[in-house]
Amino acid sequence: MKLAVITDLHANREAVEAVLNHAHAQGAERFAFLGDYVGYGADPGWVVDTVRRYIADGAIAVGGNHDAGVAEAPSPNMRPEARVVLEWTRAQLDADQLAWLQGLPLSKTDGDMLFVHANAFAPAEWEYIQGRIEAVRSLHATTCHYTFCGHMHEPKLFHLSGTGKAGDFVPTPGIEIPIPSLRQWLIVPGSAGQPRDGNPAACYALFDTDEQTLTFQRVPYDFELAGAKIREAGLPVRLAERLAHGQ
């Protein structure tokens, strides 16, 4: 089975549409969404409703910190511009959409796979996987061999051997990577809606569960239109500008 893993969609309709179309063209049979459906972008309602339709068809979904911030209250560590967007976003969504965001689980297990937005060791505290130390801590918190998490907007792959030896690397898009279950793996697909590694193309990952291979994908999209919508909505201009630079 080919599983498309998509995270940090951030209300970016143009990016999400491009990623979904690309994933279907690559033969994706199932989808997993790792949270932050809202925040930063100008199309929160469309993204929420789209993910809900995929869930009705069997997709997996967990919640992120921006989703919790809109449905409940923003984290005290959240930046001022993010808070502004969350207040705006809350006004764009109806009661049913807000209730859906509030009801999202923090993590979900499916067979030998764990799906979570931030990390496996303390999902509700939204700590980032900054490097090997946090990655190993996260892998030690689960018996699953495959952990998929978002929150970090840059693609990264970590692994841990049975003897405790850890490693990590930045993947090359489009290159199939063997990830056998002899090791534990932590996969950070990168952000679909707001990449931050200097490349504006949207990110996602495709996991072939039968072959145990992983491919990180980059998908060009109309970031100029997405940015124009942000400006038209009266949201912080910097949020539109960063889309063009992948920052």
Automatic annotation (TrEMBL):
<dbReference type="InterPro" id="IPR029052">
    <property type="entry name" value="Metallo-depent_PP-like"/>
</dbReference>
<dbReference type="InterPro" id="IPR024654">
    <property type="entry name" value="Calcineurin-like_PHP_lpxH"/>
</dbReference>
<feature type="domain" description="Calcineurin-like phosphoesterase">
    <location>
        <begin position="1"/>
        <end position="211"/>
    </location>
</feature>
<dbReference type="Pfam" id="PF12850">
    <property type="entry name" value="Metallophos_2"/>
</dbReference>
<protein>
    <submittedName>
        <fullName>Metallophosphoesterase family protein</fullName>
    </submittedName>
</protein>
<dbReference type="InterPro" id="IPR011152">
    <property type="entry name" value="Pesterase_MJ0912"/>
</dbReference>
<dbReference type="InterPro" id="IPR050126">
    <property type="entry name" value="Ap4A_hydrolase"/>
</dbReference>
<comment type="similarity">
    <text>Belongs to the metallophosphoesterase superfamily. YfcE family.</text>
</comment>
